[in-house]
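Progress note, sequence design subtask.
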C-alpha cells in the first residue's frame, strides 16, 4: 500500500449487493455500474447494501476515511445480484444471477472479481450454469476471489473447485482459521487464509462499522491481487494464484496457507527480472 494505490486502468469486479456510491468514504473512488439497481441510496441500511459498501470500502475507500482502502486508485465495477427489494432484504442470491453477473463483469473488462455472498439452494442445472460462467471468465483471464463462507462447515462447491477461483478463509490473529470459516479439500488446495479480525469499513449513514469474516478476508485478498497486478500487469492468473498460495499444488490439508502478499509480489518481480 505504501508503494501503490492501484492502476486506474485495472478493473476489479464486485459481485455483491448495491454499493452506496454516495458514501463520503467513496467520494474519490472510480466506480462504474450498468444498472441503477447496482447502486444504493446513501442512507440504505439493508443487509445487501451494507455488505457491498463495506466490501467496497476495503477496496477503494479513501485511505483517510477510516476504512482500509487497499487499492483506491483502481476502477471498481459493481454488479448487484440482489436486483429486487425482497432479494436485498434477504441478502440471498440465486445461482443464475451469480452466473449472469460473472459473465457481465468479464465482458466489462474486469481482471479480478470479488465474490462473497450467500446463495439459495440450487439445482444441478443452476450449478452447471455457474460452472459454465466460471469457464467463461477463466477463458477471459479473470481471477475470481471467493469468500469460503461463514457456516463453519467442511465442504467444497462448484465455485471453490474451479481453476479460476481463489477461495479465501478468515484467519484469527493467532494464525488459525476462524471458528465459523468454512474449510475443505478444494479450499485447502486452491485457497489462502487472511487475517480479518478487527477490520473497520464503511457503514450506513456515512459512518464506519466493524467488518469481518470471510467476506472481509476475501476483500483483503482481492485488494492485494489488485496492487500486484497494477505493478506487474502481464502476470497471468495462474502465476498470480500460485504466488499468492506460496505452497505446493499437491497440498492435502483442508486448511489453506496464510497469504503473504509481499512475498508473492517479490517472487513474481524476481521472475520478471
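Output:
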Amino acid at each position: 500500500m505504501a508503494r501503490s494505490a492501484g492502476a486506474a486502468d485495472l478493473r476489479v469486479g464486485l459481485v455483491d449487493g448495491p454499493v452506496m456510491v454516495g458514501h463520503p468514504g467513496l467520494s474519490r473512488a472510480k466506480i462504474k455500474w450498468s444498472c441503477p439497481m447496482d447502486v444504493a441510496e446513501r442512507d440504505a441500511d439493508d443487509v445487501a447494501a451494507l455488505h457491498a459498501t463495506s466490501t467496497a470500502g476495503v477496496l477503494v475507500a479513501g485511505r483517510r476515511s477510516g476504512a482500509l482502502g487497499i487499492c483506491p486508485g483502481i476502477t471498481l465495477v459493481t454488479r448487484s445480484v440482489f436486483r429486487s427489494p425482497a432479494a436485498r432484504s434477504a441478502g440471498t442470491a440465486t445461482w443464475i444471477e451469480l452466473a449472469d453477473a460473472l459473465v457481465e463483469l468479464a465482458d466489462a473488462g474486469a481482471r479480478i472479481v470479488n465474490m462473497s455472498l450467500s446463495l439459495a439452494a440450487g439445482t444441478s442445472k443452476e450449478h452447471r450454469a455457474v460452472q459454465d460462467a466460471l469457464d467463461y471468465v477463466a477463458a477471459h483471464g479473470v481471477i475470481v476471489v471467493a469468500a469460503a463462507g461463514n457456516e463453519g462447515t467442511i465442504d467444497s462447491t462448484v465455485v471453490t473447485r474451479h481453476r479460476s477461483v481463489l477461495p479465501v478463509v478468515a484467519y484469527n490473529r493467532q494464525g488459525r482459521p476462524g471458528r465459523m470459516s468454512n474449510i475443505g479439500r478444494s479450499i485447502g488446495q486452491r485457497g489462502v487464509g487472511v487475517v480479518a479480525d478487527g477490520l473497520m469499513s464503511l457503514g450506513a449513514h456515512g459512518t464506519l462499522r466493524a467488518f469481518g469474516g470471510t467476506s472481509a478476508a476475501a476483500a483483503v485478498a482481492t485488494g492485494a491481487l489488485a496492487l500486484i497486478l497494477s505493478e506487474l500487469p502481464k502476470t497471468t492468473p495462474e502465476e498470480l494464484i500460485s504466488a499468492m498460495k506460496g505452497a505446493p499444488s499437491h497440498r492435502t490439508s483442508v486448511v489453506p496457507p496464510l497469504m503473504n502478499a509481499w512475498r508473492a509480489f517479490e517472487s513474481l518481480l524476481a521472475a520478471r527480472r
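Residues 213-231 form the longest helix (19 residues). Work on this subtask will continue into the next period as scheduled.
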